[in-house]
Design brief:
The complex is a heterodimer of chains A (about 250) and B (about 230).
Chain A: E1 4-15, E2 18-29, E3 33-37, H1 44-50, E4 59-64, E5 67-68, H2 73-79, E6 83-86, H3 98-109, H4 114-127, H5 143-155, E7 161-165, H6 173-189, E8 193-197, H7 201-207, E9 210-215, E10 218-224, H8 225-230, H9 235-244
Parallel strand pairs in A: 3-8, 3-9, 6-7, 7-8
Antiparallel strand pairs in A: 1-2, 1-4, 4-5, 9-10
Helix pairs in contact in A: 3-4, 3-5, 5-6
Chain B: H1 14-46, H2 52-67, H3 70-85, H4 91-116, H5 120-128, H6 133-163, H7 175-185, H8 193-228
Helix pairs in contact in B: 1-4, 1-6, 1-7, 2-4, 3-4, 4-6, 5-6, 6-8, 7-8
Classes of the chains: A alpha/beta (about 250), B mainly alpha (about 230).
Chain lengths: ~250, ~230
C-alpha cells in the first residue's frame, strides 16, 4: 500500500448529537481520481471538508502520505499546503488583485520569493486562459473566471492532492465546461490525485477512476467508475443514477 | 449700547482664545480617537476568538463604557480615582484617557461586528491555502472588515468630537469653557454676546463634524455601489 496517498479509517462525525458520518473507510492511491456521489445531504461536503481539517471529526483516523494526522489546528495548517481545496462559492479575496490572491499562499505561507511566485502565477493563469486579468480585482470577473482563478490559487502551493467541492454548482451552465476542462486537464496532464464532489454525472463518468457513493452519511459502495455507471452494486445507487437523468 | 454683540468676538484676544480652546478640543478628541482606534482594533479582534473568559471580560468592558454616561466617567476618573488610587493626571490628560477608553470600547464592537460579517467562506478559503490565524486576520479578514467599518468609525468620531463639550465639567479649557469665560467677562458691555459666542462655537463644531458625516455617507454609498455593481 505504499502508493496510498490518503487513508481514512473508521471516521465518525457528529454535529452536536446528530450523527452525520458513519464509519467511513476508504483510501486514495497516488494519481487516482475519486468522485464522491450521492444525494443532497448525504454528507459528501462534510466528508471532503474533514479531509482538509475544516471540520473536526470525533472518531477514526486520517492518514496522509503515510503519516497519521494528529488533528490539531497547527498540524492541519501544515497539511493544507499539500492538500489544495476549491469550494463551490469560489471565494477569491475581494481585497486583493487576482495575482495577489494567487501569490498570497506561496509568498506568506511558504515564504517563497515574490519574483519566482509571480512568474509561476502568470504561467498558471496562461494555462487557464486568464493571464490578461492578473491585475484585475475579483469583482470584475465572471463566476467561471473566478472559479478558474480559485483553482490556480490552490495549485500555486504545489499540492500533492486536490479536493473539489461542487465547484461548478453555482456557475452559469455555459461556464461549467471551462472549469471542468481544467480539472480534467489536471487529472490527465499532471496526473493529479483528487477527490471530486459533483452533481455533473457526465463529468464524473469522464474523469473518475472510482466512485464512492454516499447516502445518509454512509458509504454504500466503492466501485470502479466504469462499472458504477454501467451497473452499480446497490439498488439505491441505481435509483440515484436513474433520477439524475443524464 | 454702543457695542453690537458681534464685536465681543474680536475684543482683545477673545478670538484667538476661542481658537486656542478649539485646538484643545480637537487635540483631545484627535489623540483619544487615535489611541481608541488602536485599542479598539486589538480588542475587536480578541472578541472574535473562541476563549469564553476573554470574551466575557471584553464584553463587560464594552458594556461598562457604553452604559455609564460620559459625564459620570469623567467625574469618576477626575475626582474619585485620584483619591482612591492616588492616580493624578492633569484634567486634559484625564479627558484624553477617558475618551480613548470609551472609543476603544465602542470601536471593539464595530471591529468585531465587521469581522464576523466577513463571509465564513472567506475564512475557510484562507485556511485552505495554509494561512495561520495571524495571517488570516492580517491579509484576509481585517482588510475586508475595514471597508465595512469605516462609515461607523467616522460616525463615532463625530460623536466623540461633540461629546468633548462635556470637558468643561472637569475644568478643561476647551472651546466651550473659554466661550463661557468670555461671555461672563463681557456680560455688562455685550449683553447679546452669549448669542454670538455660542453661535461661533456652533459654527466651529459644524465645520468639523459636517465634513466627517458627509464623508461617511459618501464612503458607504460607494461601498454599496461596489458590492452591488
Amino acid at each position: 500500500m505504499a502508493d496510498q496517498i490518503l487513508q481514512v479509517e473508521h471516521l465518525e462525525k457528529y454535529y452536536q448529537k446528530r450523527h452525520v458520518l458513519y464509519d467511513i473507510n476508504f483510501s486514495v492511491a497516488k494519481g487516482e481520481v475519486v468522485t464522491l456521489l450521492g444525494p443532497s445531504g448525504s454528507g459528501k461536503s462534510t466528508l471532503i471538508r474533514c479531509l482538509n481539517g475544516l471540520e473536526p471529526y470525533q472518531k477514526g483516523t486520517i492518514t496522509f502520505e503515510g503519516q497519521q494526522v494528529d488533528p490539531t489546528e497547527k498540524n492541519w495548517q501544515q497539511i493544507r499546503q499539500k492538500i489544495g481545496m476549491v469550494f463551490q462559492s469560489y471565494d477569491l479575496f475581494p481585497n486583493l488583485t487576482v495575482i495577489d490572491n494567487i501569490m498570497l499562499g506561496p509568498t506568506k505561507v511558504q515564504k517563497q520569493s515574490a519574483d519566482a511566485t509571480r512568474a509561476e502565477a502568470i504561467q498558471l493563469l496562461q494555462r487557464v486562459g486568464l493571464e490578461d486579468y492578473a491585475d484585475a480585482y475579483p469583482r470584475m470577473l465572471s463566476g467561471g473566471q473566478k472559479q478558474r482563478i480559485a483553482i490556480v490559487r490552490a495549485l500555486a502551493l504545489h499540492p500533492d492532492f486536490m479536493l473539489f467541492d461542487e465547484v461548478t454548482a453555482s456557475l452559469d451552465p455555459e461556464m461549467v465546461r471551462g472549469v471542468l476542462n481544467i480539472i480534467k486537464d489536471l487529472a490527465e496532464t499532471d496526473n493529479m490525485t483528487m477527490i471530486v464532489v459533483t452533481h455533473e454525472m457526465n463529468f464524473a463518468q469522464e474523469i473518475a477512476d472510482r466512485v464512492l457513493f454516499l447516502e445518509n452519511g454512509k458509504i454504500l459502495e466503492q466501485t470502479p467508475s466504469k462499472q458504477f455507471f454501467a451497473k452499480p452494486q446497490t439498488d439505491r445507487a441505481q435509483e440515484f443514477l436513474d433520477s439524475m437523468d443524464f | 449700547m454702543d457695542h453690537s454683540g458681534i464685536s465681543v468676538l474680536f475684543e482683545g484676544t477673545n478670538f484667538t482664545r476661542l481658537l486656542g480652546g478649539l485646538w484643545v478640543t480637537v487635540k483631545i478628541a484627535g489623540i483619544a480617537l487615535i489611541l481608541g482606534l488602536i485599542l479598539g482594533i486589538v480588542l475587536g479582534v480578541l472578541r472574535t476568538f473562541r476563549n469564553r473568559l476573554l470574551r466575557l471580560i471584553l464584553r463587560l468592558y464594552l458594556e461598562f463604557f457604553r452604559i455609564v454616561p460620559t459625564v459620570v466617567l469623567l467625574f469618576l476618573f477626575y475626582y474619585i480615582l485620584p483619591k482612591q488610587l492616588n492616580f493624578n493626571l492633569p484634567a486634559d490628560q484625564i479627558a484624553t484617557l477617558v475618551f480613548a477608553l470609551w472609543v476603544g470600547a465602542e470601536m471593539s464592537d464595530i471591529v468585531r461586528g465587521a469581522l464576523i460579517s466577513v463571509p465564513k467562506h472567506q475564512r475557510e478559503s484562507g485556511l485552505a491555502i495554509g494561512l495561520n490565524r495571524h495571517q488570516l486576520y492580517r491579509y484576509v479578514l481585517i482588510p475586508q472588515a475595514i471597508t465595512l467599518e469605516i462609515p461607523a468609525t467616522i460616525n463615532l468620531a463625530t460623536r466623540v468630537i461633540k461629546t468633548t463639550s462635556l470637558l468643561m465639567l472637569i475644568s478643561v479649557m476647551d472651546v466651550i469653557n473659554i466661550g463661557q469665560q468670555i461671555i461672563e467677562a463681557n456680560n455688562h458691555t455685550h449683553p447679546t454676546g452669549v448669542f454670538w459666542v455660542y453661535g461661533l462655537i456652533f459654527l466651529f463644531y459644524f465645520l468639523i463634524d459636517y465634513p466627517l458625516s458627509w464623508w461617511a455617507k459618501r464612503l458607504e454609498k460607494r461601498r454599496l455601489e461596489r458590492t452591488n455593481g
